[in-house]
Design goal:
Elements lengths: L1 H4 L3 H16 L4 H25 L5 E5 L5 E4 L3 H24 L6 H20 L3 H19 L5 H31 L13 H6 L1 H16 L10 H4 L5 H9 L2 H17 L1 H4 L3 H23 L3 H21 L3 H32 L15 H15 L5 H16 L2 H29 L19 H19 L2 H11 L4
Antiparallel strand pairs: 1-2
Helix pairs in contact: 2-3, 2-5, 3-4, 3-5, 4-5, 4-11, 4-16, 4-20, 5-6, 6-7, 6-12, 7-9, 9-12, 11-16, 12-15, 14-15, 14-19, 15-16, 15-19, 16-17, 16-18, 16-20, 16-21, 17-19, 17-20, 18-19, 18-20
Length: about 500
Amino acid sequence: MKEQFLLLLPILFPVIAGMVLLISKLEDREKRQKYVASVVILNAIFVLLVLYFGSKDAFVLHKFSQKLSLILHIDGMSMVFGTMVSILWVITTFYAFEYMKHEGMETKFFSFFTMTFGIVVGIAFSGNMLTLYLFYEFLTLVTLPLVMHNSDGKTRYAGRIYLIYMMGGASLAFIGLVFLVIYGNSLDFVMGGILNTELAAKDEEMLHIVYLLAFFGFGVKAAVLPFYYWLPTAAVAPTPVTALLHAVAVVKAGVFAIIRLTYYNFGTEFLRGTWTQNVILVMTALTIVFGSTMALRTPHIKRRYGYSTISNLSYILFGIALMTPAGLSAGLLHMIYHAVLKITLFFCAGAILYQNHREYAYEIEGFGTKMPMIFFSMTVVSIGMAGIPPFAGFHSKWALGTAAVATENPVAYLGIAALILSALLTVLYLFSLVIKAYFPVKKQYPTWYYDGVADPNRLMTIPLLVLSMISVVIGLYPKPFLQVFDAISQGLL
């Protein structure tokens, strides 16, 4: 029982610590940074210890009825999501210490930042759909103040849009939850699904519609068409927030929930080969192309990366929608790659904004030699995002294409075409920034144009370099990840 109770510690600890910070109104920057760093690092250690050395038995927090209960449980998916979140949260924390100096209201920011860590861990540790849904709703509440951090007109508008979309998505997801209660043997996460075959057979078409509604409900956080608008709008939030929203916390929570819904609740045997699957395959393919096209058209750097996230999230959803072990494994690989690569790109954009107050692509001409560490990181990660072998993005995109071909589903070939087109567009919208930085169109700018243009201090550059190195390593050595993901997709972990 004590070991099981430890599942609750990494959830409650940062939530309580964040509340204490908010109430205390600690304004001394050095003390606040030490406090937040201690909480985040300790909690990351707690998470990793629980994931890899803790009890694998379920911990029932509260039982409402035979089917309705709040449960924490660790499995392979928990390990993947929890590990990714913990590592990236620590790195983001140190970056945020420096970046938030020019944003103000740091105590409020780090309070909700810390609480969000606990809620995301709760999503990772959820043992059934009811528990996941609960933490899913909490995630909206604790991230809303982060999106609206500056409290000006733009952030208030972004906050309203964010809340409307999240609440709407939650309503659709709730429909799926209700029907799982009625037609499922339980709400637990079981590879292969939990639907009662006899009951499901009587209302098969209706359940397909319900699944589609729940998919798009959770898909709101994953920014799938047509529910994407909140994501680029949220680019007005401080960069550490947009980095977490776009790379780790919110969007990946949506992807994580869809994996649980598809593989662990409804089950792929129930969904594969149906019109429902084809609808999802088509929508993910359209979202891939749409996101890449909009990224190419958008001059604002953070918004460009935001549209890129929309595209890349649907890479993952496309793998999930293939509803095969190979598809899930490929989707998980891209989820990890995208998290590391995209958070790095947002950090680069944030560093440019922090140092020079430049936000648009046309404003960074000639910055490459002035900010060598920032643009080195941007270049390395852009190569990975573009999928140039042997860097990270290549392996996941190749795995997605291979998995799609193996399904022999004609609709899946549409996704392959979308992947190819998106790869081309990705090269254009990412490398156009790099080229502008290193090869300016104008050969001569006024001296004042480059005043203050330089790399930021170590608190911002070291996280970038660490992430860049991680992106290279995981790209060169994808095999260990694929072995783990294959085991998860086959229900062995």
